[in-house]
Specification:
Helix 3 links the parallel strand 4 and strand 5. This protein is an alpha+beta fold. It is globular. The strands form two sheets. A seven-stranded mixed sheet has the order 1-2-3-4-5-9-6, with helices on both faces. Strands 7-8 form a two-stranded antiparallel ribbon. The protein has five helices and nine strands. 24% of the residues are buried.
Amino acid sequence: MEIRQIFENKKDYMDLLFLADESEEMIDRYLEKGDMYVLFDDGPVGECVVVDLGDGVFEIKNIATDPSVHGKGYGRKLIEFVLENYKEKGHQLLVGTGDSPLTIPFYEKCGFKEHHRLKNFFTDNYDHPIIEEGIQLVDMVYLSQEM
């Protein structure tokens, strides 16, 4: 297993990016200004994009692992990598997600706590309903962790 920073051709990993964000337009808003990392284990199996929000606050804008490797700890490895590599640069790491029974417990197990919510984020910013586990996502839930 190896995590590499990607500087060029970030869109070569759109299949992984789309796992966490269905909209190329939304991905385009942060992809080039963010630091992208890809986790390789016999090929790319996960990715993470981190953006500097200023004042020592960083946000994971996109994180995903291929469904074929879910439950193998790759997502946790990416978060641990980010926490370790950004602790000298900042003091807080945020991640935004839908109010989903798939993602919220994962982030909580990684040490995140709910920080705030953006009401109607998914209904206001996507041209179609975003459904996860049969539930339409409406609000963006932000979780945070001190670094």
